[in-house]
Structures are given as C-alpha cells and as structure tokens.
C-alpha cells in the first residue's frame, strides 16, 4: 500500500477512532444523568435536522477544497490552491451565518415536521433545535481548515482537532447536564439543550487549534509559493464556480446517513403506530434505531471515513498526473484493507450485541436484535463511502449523486411495506437494501471508468468471510461458556465478556492473517516485519 495513503489513513483512522469511541463511551454517564431512552429521543430530535443543515452549511466545500488543492499542487500551481482556500473561507463564513439563521428561524417548522415522542411539547423541541444551531457558526470554517491541510496530505491537524473537539464537547456536555439536573435542580429539556449546545463549544476549541497549526506552518507554506509555476490564471468567479460545482456531490454524499435517518424519523414511528405497536414500544424502537445503534455501528465505519478523507486528494493527484496504474494500485489496496478490517469488526459487533448493548445502554432484547441486524450494514456503508471518494477523486462525482439517489429511492419505496412485514426490523432491512443498490451502481461505474477489475478483491472477500466465520465459531463458543457463569444483563460483567470475547476474536483473526501471509500482501514490508517479529511462519 502507498506509504502516503497508509500513513495518512492511519493518522486519520486513529484520530477518528478515538473521537468515535469517546462519542460512544460518553453515552454511559450521559444516560445515567438524563435518565435513559426518552430524554435521548429529545437529544436526537435536535441532532437529525442539525446534521442536514450542517451538510448544507459546509456544502462539501472542505473536501472540494482538499481535492482542488491536491490537484493544483500536483501541477505545481501552489498559488491557485492558496486562493482557493481564501475564497473558501469567505464562502464558509457566509454559509455558516445563513444556515444558522435559517435553522434558528425555522425551528418551529422543523419541530412540527418531526414526530416528537416521549411526551415532550413542541416548545421543548424548538428549544433543543435552536440550542444546537449555534454550532453552524463555527463548524464550516473549522471543516475548511481541515480540508486545507488534507489537500497538502497533512492529516495530523485534522486528527488531533477531531479528538480535541470531542473531548471538549463531552466534558462540557457531561458537566453542563450534571449541573442542570443535580446542582440547579433543573429540568430535562434544559439539560438536553445544554448537551446539544456542546457542539458549539467543541467546535470552537477545534477551530482555535487548527488556527494555531495554520500560523505555525505558514512560513513553510509561503515558501512553496516561491516555487509556483504561475502558468494557470483563474478568476475569482471561476474559483467560486469550480468549488461549488465540485462541492455539490460532496454535500449530497455527506448527507447520506442524515437522509436515511430522516426517512426513519418521519416514517418509522408513524408506520409502527399504524400497524398497532404500543406507544412505549414505538418510542423504544425509534430511540434504538436512530440513536443507540447508530453510535455502535459507526466504530467500523470510522475506517471508511478515514480512507475517504485520505483517498480523495491522493487519487486526484495521481489522476491529474495520468498515473493510472498508481490509481489502480491504490484502489486495490484500499478496498482489500477496508474489507479485511470491517467484515470481522461488523460481525463481531453482531455476535456480541447483547453485552455491548448492556454496557453502553441497558439490557434490551429489542436492542440486541436490532443491533445484530444493523451491524453488517456498516460493511455496505464503508463500501459506499470509499466508492464515493474514488468517483470524486477521478472527477466522476455525478455518479455518486445518482448512486445515492437510487439508494434513497429504494429505501423510501421499501420502507413502509417492510416495516408492515417485519416491524422495526423492516426499516433496517430497507436501509441495507438502499446502501446495497448505491454500492453496486458505484462499483460498476468505477469498473467502467477506471477499467478496474474486482476479481482479486472478490476472491479476497470470500477469504475474509471464511476467516470471519472461523473467528465466529471461537467467539460464540467462548461467549456461551462465559455467559453460563457471568450475567450479560449487568454492565461490569457484560464489559468483561465483551473485552475477553472481542480480544480473543481479534487475536485469532490476526493470527490467521499472519499465518496466511495476508499481512505481507495487504500491508507490504510493514506487515512482513511485524509477522517476523511475532515469529509466525
């Protein structure tokens, strides 16, 4: 695997993984403070429209800027990349202010459009939506700075700023909700409003760190301008046009998860009530699918996000230089490593769904069943993210939009009949079919335009599934044995089962990879050196 891609992916994966793990772990004390599932519904009530407005506010411009900076740097036109960045800053400030005002002002309409469960009033929903809207003032500019560094293949600032943003957000969230609930003796709505406002506080801390990185590295970036070829002259209007046209696919693809969640938010509760499910069970299903499960399945999805962020500028640079063989090598490596890691991770989550759900939330038969069904869909989400990044890197981003729209159409058409057939599980099945449709379409487009063969990847995928099945036999046997002595319905014992079974499964899978010399083929000399250090022949 290319050293730049491997290093960049590792740095971004580490930063994103730490951020996501923190984003899951805080749920345990947060639930304890606010009192369980129903307040979490109100929290998610504000976050779903916020995610959509955030996608509109950033409009895919940070990744578009990263792509174009990489493109012009490959042409040694460094000044054009700098002008793109400056132009993007003004655009992000403007869009952030406009989207903040729109979300704040439209809060009553947004609250009425959604189905607010748990006995909360319309005014409660409006308050929560408005509290989270303030983050829109900061995050667009912050995201642009991350895109700027990624365009220079510098992933460190993005990774560190993600971790800082999450740490500050969680500290403010937990401290704020605790003070409201137990020191000031306030109500849940105020506590949830503080929790959603924490997005602004975390983003502000991240922005300050990124500005520090920028001014620290500015002398080196300025020296690159002295080596500028100066043969490309682009007007400001043309720059704006290029950024916006390139950003449209990024915004649409970046909104994929939010759009799928919105379909669930608008339809899941209503259809379940229509077929006679009790209001209490409806509330539980909606909270599990739109909040609980989403948190857990994003752990394997982290790798796909990191690959996507590292892949776009690298593929763009190689494609601009017409290094098509290099592009094919990068794609071959990325798809294989992605599947090598996500397949066992997703099925591992499915196998340990019961103790995982107990550790992070509370013992739940429904939560366990829904997580078991949803976990493998993270494989499709990972493929979707990386396939979209590839198409954007080779300037065929129009197909990413079409692929997503086909998936959303499949989800929308199948949502109601599948829920009527399988209750809440039907919504998850519809999501899986939607992502599968998108993935198949985009992979066929990649095959056509890059002239890329998936034969080796398909053979390796069969091998990865076989290795995962063997790992599963070991994990399930150990899980059954431990559950005879340790309860999966109590947090500490469930955590112990998760760590032991998950750890043994990971070691067994890793041993098989080393024994079959897959580590050598996937990770090159690094994998070989590690295998030899472990004395596995």
From TrEMBL:
Q: From the record, give the transmembrane residue ranges.
A: 12-34, 46-66, 87-107, 127-145, 166-184, 190-215, 243-263, 297-320, 332-353, 373-394, 401-422, 428-450, 462-482, 494-514
Localization per record: Cell membrane
Q: Known Pfam families for this protein?
A: Polysacc_synt (PF01943)
Out of the domains of life, which is the source? Answer: Bacteria
Topology within the bilayer? Multi-pass membrane protein
User: Record keywords: Metal-binding included?
Assistant: no
Q: Which UniProt keywords apply?
A: Cell membrane, Membrane, Transmembrane, Transmembrane helix
Q: What is the protein's major site of localization? A: membrane
UniProt-listed InterPro entries? PG_synth_SpoVB, Poly_Biosynth_Transport, Polysacc_synth
Q: Name one GO cellular component term.
A: plasma membrane
Report the protein name in the record: Polysaccharide biosynthesis protein
Q: Which organism is it from?
A: Listeria monocytogenes
